[in-house]
C-alpha cells in the first residue's frame, strides 16, 4: 500500500479549502492509497513498442468544406418579418417593465 499520511491528506484538504473530519481523513487515506496502488500496477505493464494515444478510438473530424455560396439578401430576409427597424428584426420585449 502506498504511504499516504494523514498529514498529507489534511494538507491537501487545506490547500483545496475543504473542511474534513478526522473520520473523513482516515477514509481518504485508505481511498487515496488504493488509487495510488492501482496506478503503480499500471507501471508494471510492458508498454515497449506501444504508441502513445490521446483517445482509445481513432476519431476524425468530419466537417463540410467551407465553400462560398449564395445567401439571401437582407431585403429577402425581412420580406416576411412581422416587424423590423434599422436592419434588425424587432421582437416583443421579454423583460417586464420594472
Main sheet characteristics: 2 strands, antiparallel
Q: In total, how many beta strands?
A: 2
Strand order of the largest sheet: 1-2
Principal-axes geometry comes out as: elongated
Indicate the proportion of strand residues.
under 5%
User: How much helix, percentage-wise, in residues?
Assistant: 25-40%
Task: Supply the helix-strand structural class.
Answer: mainly alpha
Second-tier CATH architecture of the domain at 6-43: Orthogonal Bundle
Order of helices and strands: HHHEE
Q: How do you describe this structure in short?
A:
By secondary structure, the chain is mainly alpha-helical. The chain has three helices and two strands; from the N terminus they run αααββ. It starts with 5 loop residues before the first helix and ends in a 9-residue tail after the last strand.
Structure overview:
The structure is a single chain. This protein has 98 residues and is mainly alpha-helical. The protein has a domain at 6-43: Orthogonal Bundle (Histone, subunit A). 38% of the residues lie in helices and 4% in strands. The chain is built from three helices and two strands, in the order αααββ. It has a two-stranded antiparallel ribbon with strand order 1-2. Strand 1 (84-85) and strand 2 form a beta hairpin. The radius of gyration is 30 Å and the shape is elongated. The N and C termini lie far apart (63 Å). The relative contact order is 0.08. The model has no long low-confidence stretch (mean pLDDT 89).
